Amino acid sequence: METPLTSTASQRAARLDRWLATQWPQLSRARWQKALAAGLVKLNGTTARASDSVAPGDCVEAVPPPPAAPPVQAVAEDIPLDILHEDDDLLCLNKPPGLVVHPAAGHWQGTLVNAILHHCGLVSSGGHALRPGIVHRLDKDTSGCILVAKNDAAHAALARQFAERTAKKTYLAVVRGRPRASAGAVHGAIARHPVHRQRMAVSRRPGAREAETAWRVLESAGNLSLLECRPKTGRTHQIRVHLKHLGHPIAGDRVYGGGADFARQLLHAWKIAVIHPTTGLPLELTAPVPADFPLQPR
Question: 30: exposed, middle or buried (C-beta count within 10 Å: 0-12, 13-18, 19+)?
Fold first, then answer.
């Protein structure tokens, strides 16, 4: 067993599970509650409960439980889907904001993939057991069009279009301020932020990947503008990073300076255009503009 973490309380009395999370903040309170339930925490030599109180002078010995093992593969869950198009080869969904696309650390259940498996039963392997059918992704709080491949042949054909940049994506973004020009393009290579590792940034450092986003203003009102954005590349957080670089961050985007007065970043995958993998015909799909957008295209 792992060597116990030991500490002597020096502050005023507190509930034990809260005290543990304060004392060793690298582990969540939920993890400590699991440790307590498993009998891995002792208070003054006696097995403790979460509701116990720890007071100055008390000695706490604790062994944190191992993190939960990720599932080997995603499982089906009955989660409603907003279907824009469905045929034998592919599915186009209108993803709501707040829904994670596929299982990952912190979100092993309740994702779009879990819902897709319940609806379809079988989709393409996608090259990863936790991302079946997923051809491209959207950020958790970005809404709108997302394509799903139902078989491996369709997946390969669609993935090729994204790799060759022939798949066309059009986004709507509500941004802060009014751009001086009515249209333009941001050319700026993107890399991980050198300090804030969960963010991306326009960068000239070695390893930064070239990126381009064309944009035009559709509407403006007060200190907000509605922009149509067409990314020509598909870098992580590309539109969010480029609009911040432009000086007009997306409203509600807390990560990239858009403020906190909206419940989420106001970015919507409005349209997507591909060549159907079986028929060879153009397929263009549109997701309705969300109700939480304060500006709408005419």
Answer: exposed
